[in-house]
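hey can u check if this looks right to u? its 305 residues, i copy pasted from the old doc so theres a chance i mangled smth
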Amino acid sequence: MGAQLRVYKRRIQAVTATKKITKAMEMIAASRIVKAQRKVAASMPYATELTRAVTAVATGSNTNHPLTTEAESPARAAVLLLTSDRGLAGGYSSNAIKAAERLRERLAAEGKQVDTYIVGRKGVAYYGFRERKVSGSWTGFTDSPEYSDAKKIAEPLIASIQKDTAEGGVDELHIVFTEFVSMMTQNAVDGRMLPLSLDKVEEESTEKGEILPLFDFEPSAEDVLDALLPRYVESRIYNALLQAAASEHAARRRAMKSATDNAGDLIKSLSRLANAARQAEITQEISEIVGGAGALADASAGSDK
């Protein structure tokens, strides 16, 4: 019994140490969510106004530009997948990867070849293990992205959309990331960055009662679109990176809370087993003492006779 009790005590100590770690990680993730939410909120006005400006330029001119003009027969698309660098975040990365797989299948069904770009070690590891080709990858900043990271990611994507498909270029740019809805809800979503859907933007503006601004183009609408193209792509990617970071922290907080709760339940269960083992050990010791005392009493009674 003594050996069994020692086993339970060692397991309780190990689980208690794990519980302290998961609780600390839960609190750290909770504190980072607030910062990430503030960054998301701060990036939204710029991204919104930039999209409206691009839409106004495109609707006010007849310029054919990769930012707004769809190819007659799109044959190739680029997909940017945002995952995390670290684990312990529940199904955060796997949900984004599944969304990217669904998008890839949909594009393939439309007859389009897909070039994949990945952010985050989890996505890179997933594609590397399956020996799939990746056109570009970036790691090391998923939990706290900066605008410079978005610019670095946007460069090859912009270059690919400006090339002809015969030279390795693409007709469309798509992005897959985890949208932050609330502390409890984060959804893996996909969206097309380029070409920009002007009808959709105009429809959203109409629903909100907004009027698209009017601009004078200097030196020309095409030059303005050339200048806005990198800014638009960078802002979309940066906003997605920020939402993904907030979602990652929320998923990790939820996963660590669940792990902490499970550790607490396990400690209670092990404590009950340890108490039962200790009681059994005490009962056995009492039985041995009583038995020994009875034997001594019988021996003494026999000697008296």
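The mean pLDDT is 85.
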